[in-house]
Task: structure prediction
Amino acid sequence: MDSAAPGGQKGAWNPGGKSVRGPALMFGAILLFGVLDANSKLLADHHAMAQVLLVRFVVLLVLVLLLLPLAPRLMGRLSTRHPWLNAGRALAMLGSASFFFLAFRDLPLVEGYLVFFTAPLIVLLASALFLRERVSPLAWVWCAVGFGGVAMALAPGFASGLGSGPLSGYLYALCGTGTYSAVFILNRQLRDEPGIARVLFWPALLGLLVMTPFGIAEWQPPTAMGWAQMIAAGMTVAAATVMIAEAFRHAPAARLAPISYTGIIWSVAFDALFWGHAPALVTLAGAGLVVLACVMSERAARR
Result:
């Protein structure tokens, strides 16, 4: 993922600024990733991971190749001054896509998200250590409050025995969380590169090279609905990837990390909608606490 906006300038965000563009983009990206996770879980009932990801990466490459001549200023160039950072980001994105697909295949969305919600804490620590960004005490406080809201929201499920998925599912979720956090940090390091073509092209190309032999070997003819779901997944991840990358153009990692907790809202909603897991009142209260933490974290960042 690349975090540059066409024509943007370095330092577009400052800790005392009032722009909400970065957080708004991050919020939209988390919603789209929630849709993607639910779609992937539905697809996992009938198709192997390699097949689903193969179609996803083909869709991403087609989108880039179509848009390059149509919107050259928006897309920018495919070349980069930071090949190793882009290679690392592409590898981290491939790992995140693969691990989360496997995790949500075996776990309810809310259980996978419990592991995933360690990511904001990891990102806050990494932004301080590797990016040398100042992390205010309030950022840590509201991040901790958000994690508390997640724990509250998921407590009823674990009390009733929902936390009994296979160990491999939790390990996949943990690995996905690690690679997702790495994407955050690499996005911030690449924020000065203009254009969005690199955001999609290099991760898609790597994914296509890796997944093609496995996808062909495990191919199952999709139904019309299956094709629609896989193509929609490619378009969804394209939009989410660009949005989350653009968010890092306008705000530091410490400001954006707590917004990841809003994923609990979508995981609870989609679990109820598609799998009949109706949320308890305490779950809704926990989700409300997450929203409060995100709002207060954003208010603190804007002061």
